[in-house]
Amino acid sequence: MARLLLDKDIKPLSEFRANAAGFIKQVQQTKRPLVITSHGKSAAVLMGVSEYESLIDEIELLQDIKTAEQQIDRGKGLSHQQAKQRVLAKLRR
After folding, report:
1. Which of 39, 56, 71, 86 is the most exposed place for a label (fewest CB within 10 A)?
2. How many angstroms separate the CA atoms of 31 and 22, rounded?
């Protein structure tokens, strides 16, 4: 996902309402999110579907890494050789 440009990617709700289709097109073309404000404060973020899916995939991967690190810390990890032996044993079946 491209970085937010503060001078282009923050819009008030009233402006978003008046040109929603244009802002959706902007988000799709630039791959940058759009921050929508209400009463001068951030209220919502509009982002493209593919960028959203990528973000979710990245979060899930980071959660998996964190879980794996916790398992290793608790002594539940396998050495490379042990993992390799398990995979090869399953492939032989």
Report:
1. 39
2. 14
**Residue 13 CB neighbours (<10 A):** 13
pTM above 0.70, yes or no: yes
pLDDT tens digits, 56-80: 999 999 999 999 999 999 999 888 9
CA distance 90 to 34: 48
pLDDT at 7: 85
The helix (run of H) or strand (run of E) holding residue 64 is: helix 49-73
Residues 36/40/43/46 CA torsion (nearest 10 deg): 10
* Cα–Cα distance measured from residue 17 to residue 4, given in angstroms and rounded to the nearest whole number: 20
